[in-house]
Amino acid sequence: MSEPLAQTLTELRVAVGMLGERASTPWWKTSFFGSSSQAFLAPTFPRTVLAAQFHGVREAASRVHDGAIGTGHVYHLFRLPEDLEQALHRQVCEPDRASELTGTIKDEESAVATLEQHSKTGPANGQGPVRVGGLADIRSSDAWRRVAGLYLVGYKDGRLVLPYFAES
Hints:
Elements: H1 3-22, H2 35-41, H3 49-69, E1 74-75, H4 82-93, H5 95-104, H6 108-118, E2 128-133, H7 141-157, E3 161-166
Parallel strand pairs: 2-3
Antiparallel strand pairs: 1-3
Helix pairs in contact: 1-3, 1-4, 1-6, 1-7, 6-7
């Protein structure tokens, strides 16, 4: 797995995780990236608060995606093949990287900017489950730029969008 892809997916998961909690109609009903979350998690996870937030929102968002898309030979930003999941976990547990990622979610504007940075230019439209590609595309930077664009437009338009990868 390439390091740049792991960095991109980690940034996307953090940004979408936070925006999904703050959407006009929240996509998942959690507040792992809310202001009180750090105070709540810090005593239990003093060195890995971001990792705890990351995995908490991953679980909540994965349930929403899986409920609409299904499971079994289907992947999305919040449920990836095991080697990708491990690479993302390493990213959030690395102190320097965790500090960088915290900047991604300091406010909604930062999270939106992260999605814009990783988005494919041009219209990206959709609502609900949107198949982005096959399982072979899950390691494609272009496919993830489309995913970022779908989440970005969905967030800005107040629509729940759930991009996923699956064989047809």
